[in-house]
Fold these 2 entries.
Entry 1:
Amino acid sequence: MVYRMNEKIIDGKKVSAEIREKIKKFGDILIKESNRTPGLAVVLVGENPASRVYVKNKIEKTKEVGFNSIEHRLDENVSEEELLSVVNKLNDDDEVQGILVQLPLPKHINADLVLDTIKPVKDVDGFHAENVGKLWSGLNSLVPCTPLGCSILLKKLNPDLSGKNAVIIGRSNIVGKPMAALLLGMNATVTIAHSRTKNIEELVKSADILVAAVGIPEMVKGNWVKKGAVVIDVGINRIDRDGKKILVGDVDYDECIENSSKITPVPGGVGPMTIACLLLNTLFTSYEQFGVAPIKLSDIFE
Ligand code: NDP
């Protein structure tokens, strides 16, 4: 049976639109109180088509919530030194509260060095080592946008995951690892699987919450999913099916919806949450940088 519109679907498009509305509301208050407008700078290196699409969407949504968008498009062959100099200028620019360097970067550039050059307070992607350390220590920090979006979707279903088993497939710094820290913070018992893990299928069968962030189209099959599990599909994979190019996730949606109690579709699940959370991080850090009484996630979601 194919489900498309039913109560099992976690509608990331709808939730993200609600979040962006709240960001606009709190952003307007901030602009009025501080007489300053939050600025989000995006640095794009090269012509990667997927990155160009992401950046275009980010810029559009930034303007929609009333923030300033600052764009730097650099040639594929830009030197590391030149890129670092752009980041340092943005670090010192009072018009810029958030800096995002779009990944992946060309091979001749040390991405870790670039990310660690961004001032931690402007690190709206949450990739700086200082923010990573704070996240794992349970301290207030800027949190990577995709796992933050997943955790907001999960919190709306159940804010306390005590006694629940969470399995994450994927251990990247962008998704898998920060997702584990967030799930621990929600009291789940967390297991991370990766390419060297044996018997992934058995592990997934034990999951009350499954987060798939692998990059393998429809890897998770319907009979891997425990009855009643919540399935969060982070994957975005472009494949050819029946002569058409379509987007699918890392779980086989039409199969996995059967056993799951809730599931995110692709597209329209986690994807739109990522951009909303980027703007959320920009809002949080702008409150901090403008010296206006800070706001918290709970203020946005009350
Ligand atoms: P990475 O390629 O950085 O990480 C993939 C992870 O999956 C790695 O930890 C890898 O293990 C693991 N893996 C690979 N093959 C297997 C396997 N056969 N069995 C188990 N684990 C495996 O990807 P990202 O984390 O950046 O992204 C994951 C997916 O999420 C992609 O589809 C990406 O497009 C999507 N994505 C979506 C976003 C959104 O906004 N919705 C944002 C970011 C990513 P190992 O470490 O051992 O190599």
Entry 2:
Amino acid sequence: MKITIIGQGAIGLLWYYKLSQCSKNKVTILCSSSIAKTPSEMQFLSDGTWQKAPLTMAHKKNLMHAELVIFCLKAYHYQAAFNDYLPFISPSTPLILCHNGMLMTESLPAQNSLLTLLTTHASKKHQAFAIEHTGQGTSDIGLLCGNLSAKTAKQLTKVLNNALPETIWSEHIQEKQWRKLAINCVINPLTAMNNCDNGAITRQKFLPDINAILSEFIQVAQAQQINFNLTELTALVLNVAQSTATNCSSMRSDILHNRPTEIAHINGFIVRLGKKLHIETPINYALTQAVTELSNQGLPNKKSSTS
Ligand code: PAF
């Protein structure tokens, strides 16, 4: 299958490397124009040794040949990427979107079938094109909008699963997306604001905030016909915080490295949707404001061990 990955982040490179290991795939990668010079190969750290793989670059003009395009971008880069690349992609090519947070439905392109890929694999960038697969996870893929035949769904799942198991097809991808959003709405801003590892937010003192974030979240989700129970959702979030106890969340890491955060697509998404639906979301609003302020002022003196 002819596959193009858009985005050279840790997850984009992980899929690029894994998919290109299968000889049946012809994989190319389209990197950000901010990268002045791209190397001819990437490196992958496996069992303590660095493996090399050729990097085959994609260009806008040959996107037309792609049978599958996988976007692995930060949520805030999607709008510009859609504007830039969609005119070059065939309307019959399925697009897979892989990101944290949510994109507003009105910003999604209507011409292609859109799939969401939710992954719990962890990948760490050591250098620009050198990554390590730091956490074995699983991936769910499902249809967000548009049409996709059962045969194509099966074929895409097989290609992804062969490359990076276990990837499973989900008929309930939207519900899974909301579950992941709940996890990110709690862990990301609390760890960023408190400059702590994920496990720290399981402490008793965070429970009132967790309860308030999730109560607002559940009301907004319910208005979208996605139903959650507060006790179960709290348990799920605490469980993820516990199982990733020593991790530095992506948002905390963004703050520590003076990068923009995805807050507008995580808690900010709940605030915007709440406003539209006339649902009050004061704690999600306060966290969105606080993280935005923190991200603007930066933390130049603080260091993190992960990225
Ligand atoms: O964004 C993140 O960091 C991750 O999605 C999660 C699950 C919060 C773990 O760190």
